[in-house]
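B., you asked whether I could sanity-check this one before it goes into the benchmark set. Here's the sequence:
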Amino acid sequence: MGSLTQDAFIRAQPNHGSPEIGTLDIGGTVALRAPEPVGKAGCPGGWYAVEPKGFLCHDRTTTLEPESHPLIQAKTARVHGDEDAPYRWGESRYAPVYRKLPDAKEQQRWEGKIDKHLATLEKLREARRSGASEDEVRTPPNFQGVDLFPATGEPPAFLSHGAPSPWASVHTPGDGRARYEMVPARSTIAWTDEFFAEGRSWLLTPQLLLVPKDKISLQKPSGFRGAMLSEGIELPLAFIRGEPKPKYRIEGGEDMAEGQRPDGVVPAVWAAGAEFAEDPDDAKGRFVLAGETWKRLDRVGLTGRARWKRGKRYLETRESGMWIRESDAVVVRGRAPEGLELGEGEKWIDVSIHWGTLVAYEGKKPVFATLISPGLKGYARVGGKPTKNTTPTGAFRIEWKHVTRTMSPDPEKKSYYLSEVPYTQFFHQPFALHGAYWHDAFGEPKSGGCVNLSVADARWLFGWTEPSLPAGWHSVRSGDDRGAGTWVVVR
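And here's what the prediction gave me:
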């Protein structure tokens, strides 16, 4: 069975009053548990039992012949993405969305001053082709961040001869206008592919609609990744947020405490537990700048050994001879699951708003650590209640998991929105853990209240948490025989 819409709801029982337990995305398919419907309550086409559980209504949003349906086949043929990201993303620069490939006349009709826009585009291209750097080219605001150079791909066959997108054929069959809508300012779009046709580069959205590439500012997701914890990579760890931070070394003293081996390996006693083993404040030597720095978002291994000098605390790193000032780092230590009744090895997540960190645990064992961006306003409260742009504190269970979810602070009007936010896990709706492709300020307050992760980190976390996503499903809800959602502790 296949979905022709972005939210084909899978229900616990074969009726519309039953709870939603998952969804299929547009073009998504799922195997049937039986070839015949189990009933037709409120669904003339019949309710079909799908794998591994639940029921889908066969109506205009679904098809029983996904292998031959034009929309399903077109969608399947254009699926791209890389190891971490299901799509590419960009911000609208007054971008229109088209149902079909518009010819020059239709572009003139639907885009004001298109001739001037395209002339400026060509002028900027020529300047770059001549060898001018990006800094030397005076770029108008509506072209900032835009990829100036044309796409090289070929248009998909389903758009040939002026044919409408398969999505438009299903959802707006009586509307022959080329333009479907405008993407509001500050909003983003996602796309799977790009190609050149009708004198322009075009982006193909997940709905198989078209957006001109020259009206989208590219947003490249951060390459930041947290740490998978294992032998050799373990807590405590430090992350560098904000600006690069200096490395220090000890000068004028023998940097060796009693019990430390000459080969520089720190005995286990130094790194045991959450606290650091202290050297005496009057230990010989002084800390001096090493002339090197750790870059922003670097991960720094720590030995568990610390030393105070002149009222400042320094932590020994696993980089030979190098120390870091504790105030320059975000130090991640292990933490006990206080207040949670966990089963043996049960998964849970610890989020620190203050430090901007997330640690994933299996029982008492930390397995993953990273930087996150919590709500912009930190712990702000008015009348004892959280204010706007704060992340709620407490212990929650993951309620819904979505491979992608379009999000908006104004979901009714959608004055602006973020398309296809990846690996979204709601733990206290509308608050979620999710990938953020629009910034890389991880470790710093940044969000409207959700917990932002890099796309790569969000993908790993999505696959690790409970409940797991059934094959073919786009989202799943926790509860009942699907299992309880993973605990998320926000503090």
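One thing to flag: The chain is about 10% helix and 35% strand. Otherwise nothing jumped out at me.
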